[in-house]
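User: Structure please.
Assistant: Input sequence and predicted structure:
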Amino acid sequence: MVRVLVDACGWAAMTDAGLNLDEGMKDVVGEADLVVLDSVQSELELLVQQRRNLLLELLARRSERIPDIEGMSHPDEMLVHLSSANGWPVLTVDRRLKEKLVNSGGSYIEVTSGRALRLVGL
């Protein structure tokens, strides 16, 4: 099982595309164990106030919540660190975050325009 870090915009993009979580992940990494940082959960809770159908209940049931990393204040910084240190891809569509991940030796899973997931850099 591969651990996959979830970024708020990546989760939103996946739900917007109507992708099946299990099928989408199976095609790129096999069985996925989703990991959500406390700060990413906070971002999602703010986002759900502006948008509907983010399926946060599904994410809560299917993921492990982990605390933020001490000494780091931005979720992207934490995601890059965890990805490069542990080899965990990040589910994201954020262009700047993807660049940081590639530059640090991390990897990411993105939602493509063809309504599928694609793994980059692992």
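Residues 73 and 93 are 20 Å apart (CA to CA).
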